[in-house]
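Worked example

This section walks through a single chain of length 354. The input is the sequence exactly as stored; nothing has been trimmed or padded.
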Amino acid sequence: MIISAAVAAIGGAAAAFLWLNRDVAEPVPRAGSEMIDRPLTPAQQLVADADDPLACAVTFVGEEAPVEPVLQWQNALYQGLPIPVAEGRVFAGWYSTQAAAGSFDPAARVNGADPVVCEDQQVELHAGWTTPEENGAEATRVPILMYHQFTAAPEGEKGWLRGNYAYIGDFDAQMNHIATTGFYLPTWDELSAFIDGRLFLPARSVIITDDDADQTWFDLAVPVVEKHRVLATSFMVTAYRQDPPPSIYVLRRSHTHDMHRAGADGDGRMVNWTADEIAADLDTSGDILGVREVIAYPFGHFDDTAKQGVAQAGFEMARTIEPGYVEIGTDKLALPVVRIDYGMGLDALISRIG
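Given that input, the structure is written out below as tokens.
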């Protein structure tokens, strides 16, 4: 009797071990000693194939939602979330619950500004939809904030570039305001879809950018970005530096490869070179950064030939230094900005973005 009980216990443990460690099926016990195999769901199979504890299978739920799950990683932000298209409707984003999707709750909206958080290596995202009329009525105007260098000196820096240096205390207060008062941080693909009228963005949306990837950006600003966990874009001149992303919250995008120089007439190379020359430079930059999406024009200089070169290199958008806000229908190759200069504290930011 004792030996029989021990054998039974060992057999039960072995069956439990096999049940917990199958990759292709989940055995389910039934009467007697027989087992039946239950195939893994697509999400379970995706996680099993990844064989990594940080892997997370994202399943999409709702109208026009993709059928297949996608793999994301729990030590990163969401990457490449789909933007579905439906005739006569406007996609309103992915949400953590069905109720949030129905109310367009921006606090529960999930995009590429958010870290991947999973339970048992799986998560569901729910689709929200609205109408073109409701989208237009929101009257969203997206500010693209433009910073340059940073200083730890409250009195600022000296010299003709003094205005470029944002005081880091002001930057900290500004990022805290954005992080804690309900702002939505769109990704660049979301901004593009918003301009097309295909995607709803909340009225309180903002994009944070830095030009030039100056050393003060790395030393002073990035720790603030990391502290407040706000998505920011660093426009990098890749001929000058090619540093890896200093934080998961920092996107590297092109400020050209080597066009941040004066051309023959004293203006930037961007308005001196041919479209083919511009495209070749941007091809180099895009290859280095591993992405073709948006550039920032050096010195803000651009013309129709520059636009042609940008598009020829496979970039969809380009950011200027012209003041203004991005709206539905804005020229994607002439995105305006809200420039932040030295002396512009929190009140100045609030007056511009709310």
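What to look for: The first helix runs from residue 2 to 21.
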